[in-house]
Every structure is written in structure tokens, then in C-alpha cells.
Amino acid sequence: MTTLGTGVLRVRHWLRDHPLALDSALALAVLVAMIIGSFVHPGVPNGPSFGTSAPEVGSVLLMVLGAVALIWRRRNPMAVLVATAGLTVVELVGFDPPAPVVMSTVIALYTVAARTDRSTTWRVGLLTMAVLTAAAMFFGWAPWYSQENFGVFAWTGMAGAAGDAVRSRRAFVDAIRERAERAERTRDEEARRRVAEERLRIARDLHDVVAHHIALVNVQAGVAAHVMDKRPDQAKEALAHVREASRSALNELRATVGLLRQSGDPEAPTEPAPGLAVLDELVDTVRRAGLPVEVACTDRRPPLPAAVDLAAYRVIQEALTNVRKHAGPGAKAEVSVVRVGATAEITVIDNGSGGGGHNGDGGGHGILGMRERVTALGGSLTAGPRYGGGFRVHAILPVKARTAEPEEPGAAGRTGENT
User: Which of 7, 231, 254, 338 is spaced 20 to 30 A from 68 at the CA atom?
Assistant: First the structure.
């Protein structure tokens, strides 16, 4: 059975790839059926009989021509229908009794209905039915009310109806297949988009954590190396700050990487993401690293949405990290968090004289990441040098976070500020 099924499948595929061969086989089958049918004489008193009459040479020629025309029914169905209908009219008018040349017209009409639209099927089908039925009734050998004449009407009508049904089914199947393919493409594109967004978010978090804490570690390690011989107590204090900053970095890295774990993993992080509630701890860490920071913050109640709260914290963290790295010695920073209507405004300014990283010479992604984070929530961020010296970072975040399309990478970094 498997071999038989495979053979049938191969034959079907071959016929699909060679439609002309299939149409030639169909034309031959129709010719054989018409010749056999021409030996049936319907007019005897006791009903139809086989072999009592034989077709004339002209009828055989018309049947051959009608069958040959069917070979091109796919290439030009309308021309084949006109040709076969004309041969049928000639047979009905000129021969007595007529041979069943109408069988070729039935196949041609079916092809037209299956390969065109419904309105064309109706117009062409009704015209073909009317012409052939009128020719049979008014010029045929049998009375106009005979069943043979109504048979011509019925067969042509069924051919049009069958072809239209096949066309409708093909269109329905094609529509279902197209919807399935479109849904599959959309699903794949959505999955890729989500993966890209998640990778970008994790990259921003990793950058914020590493840049901030490693910058503090670098500063404190430098202090410890500088005073190790002359003031060991101060070096010990600096090393303690290094240890604390590295521990905080490890904890935040563990929490961020834990997001990549599968749901239900017992080792997945359960602590909330950092926000303005721990802003004082962030500021104390920066102060211990040697950067004076002043904070002006309005009432933090009611709390901001989680996404907005995290974005505000990361903006302040990255801005202070930039001040510590690039503002130069003796710099001071000011942080303000103000609720204005339906927005929260975050401002970080400094009076530093260094500007390498602020002006975009560092080649990092700090302010680019801040802008992407803020824009994703529907806010805006501006960063640039202050008049009279220093640098200013100003972010406006909506209290009710909404998803926004991220800006183009080039547009996000047009001001050129990097970590």
C-alpha cells in the first residue's frame, strides 16, 4: 500500500508540473466518450439503443476538433469555449441526429468558470446555455420540448455551477493559507522584536550597574594606592568602600542576570528593582567616593510606577557616574526630583571643568542608554554643557508610563554625550 500511495503521489506531482499532458489526456478521454455516445440513438420507440446508428464523417471531424481544442483550455479558456460552442452549434444545426459534441463545450465552460470571476461566469454561462439550447430547440431533429434539448441546458448549467464552486473553494483555501502564512510571519517578527527589546533592556541595565560601581571601585582603588604608605587608615577606609561597591555591583548583576532564568527557577531574584526609595543609599555611595552631592526631592508619595521609578533611578545613577568620571577635581553635583502634574522631572547638574566624556569623546553608551530608557516610557531627555561651565542632564518622565517607539540610533546620540 505504501508503494502504491507513493506512486500515485508521484503521478499527481508529475501531472501538476506538466498540465499540458493532463489536458491532452482529458481531451482524449472526452473524444472517446463523444465517439461512444454518437453510437447511441435516442429516437427509437422503445427508448435509446446502442449501435443502431453510426456518426457521419462530418460529426467525427467536429468531435475531433472539439477534443483537440480542449488541450489549450488552461492557456486561453475563453477562446476554447468559443471554439467548442461554435462546433456544437454546427453539429446541432447541420447533422441529424447530432453527435454529443456538446461534451467538449461542457468541459470548456467548466474551465472558464473555474478560472475567472463570478460575474464573468454568470454572463458567459447564461449566454452559452441560451445559444446552445436555442440551437437545439429550433434547429434540432427532435421536438423543442424533448429531453435531449433540456439535457443540453442542464449540462451546461451544471458545468458553470461546478466551475464556480471549484473556484470559490480554491479562493477560500488560498485565503486561509495566506492568513496562516501572514500570522506565522507576524509571530516570528513579534518574537524577534521582543528578543531585541529584551536584549537592549538587559544591556542598559548591565551598563548602568557596571559603569557606576566599577567607576567607584576605580576611584577608591586609586585613593588607596596613593595613601597606602603615608596614611594606611585612609587606605583601609578606601578599600572598605571598594569592597562595598563591588558587593553592590555583584548583587545588582546577580539580579539582572537572574532575569534570564526560566520562570519558576528557585534561584530567580525576588527583590524589587532599585528605585527612588534607595536614592539616599546611591547618593551616600557617591559621596563616600569623594563627590559632594546635594539632593532636592519633593514628596515621594504616591510612589512612581515601577518602570518610571527604575528609569529615574538609572538616570540619576548614570549621570552621577559621568560626573565622577569626567567632571574633574573639585566638582560638585546637584540632584533634583520634582513632580509636576502628570510628569516627574529629574535634573542632575555639576560645575565641573572636565568634559571629555560629557562631550562624547569617550565612545560609551551611557547617555544613549538613558535616552532610550526614557523615550521607551514616552518621556524625553536632554543632556549638554551648561552656560558658564559644567554639565546638565534633564529627564521628563510621565507618571503613567506608556510604551513609545524608540528613536533611531543616530537620533538618540545626536548630542554626542556618552559615558
Answer: 7
